[in-house]
Amino acid sequence: MGAFPKAGRYSYDWLDNRRYKSLDRIDPDMAEIGIGSVFPALPDVTDCFVLTAFVPNRYLLLAVPGP
Predict the structure, then answer these.
(1) Is the peptide bond before 5 cis (omega within 30 degrees of 0)?
(2) In the chain, where the domains are located
(3) d(Cα 16, Cα 44) in Å, to the nearest integer?
(4) CB neighbours of 34 closer than 8 A, spacing ≥ 6?
(5) 9 with 22: CB under 8 angstroms?
(6) Buried b / exposed e across 47-62, counting CB within 10 Å, b at 16+?
(7) pLDDT by residue (tens digit) across 5-50?
(8) Backbone phi, then psi, for 59, in 5-degree steps?
(9) Torsion (CA) 14, 5, 33, 59 in degrees, nearest 10
(10) Cβ distance 44 to 65 under 8 Å?
């Protein structure tokens, strides 16, 4: 979920990865998340998704912060 540089690294290169080559393995530095983690909506913008709740292997809840 999200765009480059975090989640976009696991997406389609031509779609939301700025044509950078996608990773072919899980990067441990990118895999660690916690409440408040930010997932950019698009490259080079401040709009984002923020992790508000999760239980590993069960659910992940993202929110879009208000103005």
Answers:
(1) yes
(2) 7-63
(3) 11
(4) 51
(5) yes
(6) ebbebeeeeeeeeeeb
(7) 665 555 666 665 566 677 777 778 777 889 998 888 777 777 888 9
(8) -160, 160
(9) -20
(10) no
The pLDDT assigned to 6 comes to: 63
Q: CA 19, 21, 27, 29 torsion: positive or negative?
A: negative
Token couple for 13: 């290169």
Q: Which two tokens stand for residue 10?
A: 């696991």
Query: For residue 28, what are the CA distances in angstroms to 23, 25, 63?
Result: 12, 9, 23
Phi, psi dihedrals of residue 61, rounded to the nearest 5°? -115, 120
**pTM for this one?**
0.64
The alpha carbon dihedral of 50, 33, 30, 11 has a sign of negative
